[in-house]
Amino acid sequence: MLFSRCLVLAVACCAAPLVLEAQTLVPPDSVRRGEPAFAVYVPSGPGVAAADHVLTIRYADGAMSPGYRGFRVPAGASAGGLDVVGTGLPATTRRGPFVLFLVSVPVDAALGVATMSVFGPDGQALAGARFTIADRTFVREDLRLDAMLTGLRVDSDPVKTEQAVRYQAILSTVHPEAAYLSGGFVRPVASRRQTSMFGMRRRYLYADGSVDVTMHSGIDFGCPAGTPVVAAGDGLIVMAEDRIVTGKTVIIEHLPGTYTIYMHLSSIEVPVGTRIGRGELIGAVGMTGLATGPHLHWEFRVMGVACDPEALIGLDKMPSIRTILPAIEGR
Ligand SMILES: [Zn+2]
Fold first, then answer.
1. How far apart are CA 278 and CA 250, in angstroms?
2. Does residue 182 register a pLDDT over 70?
3. What is the pLDDT of residues 49-83, one digit of tens each?
4. How many helices (H) does the chain have, and how many strands (E)?
């Protein structure tokens, strides 16, 4: 019951306890391992910037998530399920504007009850709420690599190292002002044929007989070379370059610390710095870099943690803002 999640803060002031107005944090009801989810925080009044709020998750085993920055839906946005306006409610209420958070649950997160906490600009705890981490099964696959592809993956190369360092630096960058996303994702290619799912436990069988086990951190769409690839959501192009391992690669920033990645393209149509809209062309499917056939590797990372981007397509697989807001208003 949502009302029970309200947290009333009592603070000592002038020796007498003072009860502040209730502040509410609405978590998702349940999130599966490896999936993203939204949480909504309703401040007691206007004034503090959304990006000055940080949300953390403590999992059942005590492990802590990174801090997720708050954001607001860009003004005028009306698509997909993040639209506060589209719910028929005013964007601001007498309790102040909503602060949204997009969180990412790792594939190996501890199952059971987890706790979310929201902190204000001075690091003070503002609200807390509980939600459940549910299980999800991930399939396994073996991928046999010939000598050439084995070399591409295992040989050390200073250029590869430099590219990897820069790639990680981009994905770990958190711009508090980056709030471009105004709705759910669209599929980046027209094809629904997935040749490798998110979260697959993948064994690379190298040409020399050795084996490496990894987690497939994205979705592979198998489709013909030249198939148009579009931006999954509104954002800013922060990488558009040819890399040794991932081939021609585009990274789009959507929210603070939140990125989608498109790999193995045959061509790139957008330079770094371009503001891109959901569904707009960014390039074409190819097999550049480490690829055994033409496909799009599509990846989604929030604060560095890979999670399943399919969960944001249409926003119909998780409790969305649309279902959450009337519950807040109804209390
Ligand atoms: Zn892939």
1. 14
2. yes
3. 888 999 999 999 999 999 999 988 765 444 344 54
4. 3, 23
Per CATH, domain 4-137+315-329 is 3.90.320.10: no
**What is the distance between the alpha carbons of residues 195 and 77, in angstroms, rounded to a whole number?**
34
Q: How far is CA 92 from the centre of its chain?
A: 25
Ligand 1 centroid–CA 315 distance in Å is: 23
Name which of 55, 303, 5 is nearest 178 in CA terms.
303
Question: How far away, in angstroms, is 195 Cα from ligand 1 center?
Answer: 9
Q: Is the pTM value of this prediction over 0.70?
A: yes
Q: Are strands 201-205 and 140-144 parallel, antiparallel or unpaired?
A: parallel
Average pLDDT, the chain: 82
Q: For residues 104 and 53, is the Cβ–Cβ distance under 8 A?
A: no
Q: Find the 272 Cα to ligand 1 centroid distance in Å.
A: 23
pLDDT at 22: 52
Distance between Cα 216 and ligand 1 center (Å):
6
Rounded-to-integer distance, Cα 279 and Cα 189, Å:
9
Q: Where are the domains of the chain?
A: 4-137+315-329, 140-312
Ligand 1 centroid, distance to 196 Cα (angstroms): 6
How far, in Å, from the CA of 260 to the mean position of ligand 1? 13
- The CATH superfamily of 140-312 is Glucose Permease (Domain IIA) (2.70.70.10)
141 CA from centroid of ligand 1 (Å): 12
Residue 298 alpha carbon to ligand 1 centre in Å: 7
pLDDT digits (tens, 9 = 90+) for 9-57: 333 333 333 333 455 888 887 899 999 988 888 887 767 888 899 999 9
Which residue from 173, 317, 313 is spatially nearest to 232, judged by alpha carbons?
Answer: 313
Region 293-306 average pLDDT: 96
User: What is the mean pLDDT of the segment spanning 265-281?
Assistant: 97
Question: How far, in Å, is the centroid of ligand 1 from the Cα of 304?
Answer: 17
